[in-house]
């Protein structure tokens, strides 16, 4: 199946959880990371149980600091 991460096609195996997707992308530090799927923010507590569906649009936003 394919989902889209920040508008880039991402092939996935079936039955992947959001946490699996993040791990495959090398996202292991979750502090300051926000995730939305199809324009809906998914709480970090749900990443381990949220099933990614074909054609989902996943948006990853990382907070940064600077001036």
Polypeptide structure, described:
The protein has one helix spanning 18-24; strands at residues 2-5, 8-11, 33-37, 40-41, 57-62. The chain is mainly beta. The chain contains one helix and five strands, in the order ββαβββ. The chain is globular. It has a single domain, classed as Roll (Ubiquitin-like (UB roll)), CATH 3.10.20. A five-stranded mixed sheet has the order 2-1-5-3-4, with no helix packed on it. Helix content is 10%, strand content 31%. The longest helix is centred in the N-terminal third of the chain and has 7 residues, at 18-24. The model has no long low-confidence stretch (mean pLDDT 93).
In CATH, the architecture is Roll
**If strands are numbered along the chain, what order do they take across the biggest sheet?**
2-1-5-3-4
Number of domains: 1
Number of helices: 1
Radius of gyration over all CA atoms, rounded: 12 Å
CATH topology: Ubiquitin-like (UB roll)
At the first level of CATH, the class is Alpha Beta
The CATH superfamily name is Beta-grasp domain
Distance between the termini: 40 Å
């Amino acid at each position: 199946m394919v989902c889209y991460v920040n508008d880039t096609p991402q092939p996935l195996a079936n039955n992947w959880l959001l946490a699996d997707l993040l791990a495959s992308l090398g996202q292991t530090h979750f502090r300051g990371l926000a995730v939305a799927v199809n324009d809906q923010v998914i709480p970090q507590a749900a990443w381990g149980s949220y099933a990614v569906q074909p054609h989902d649009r996943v948006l990853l936003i990382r907070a940064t600091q600077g001036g």
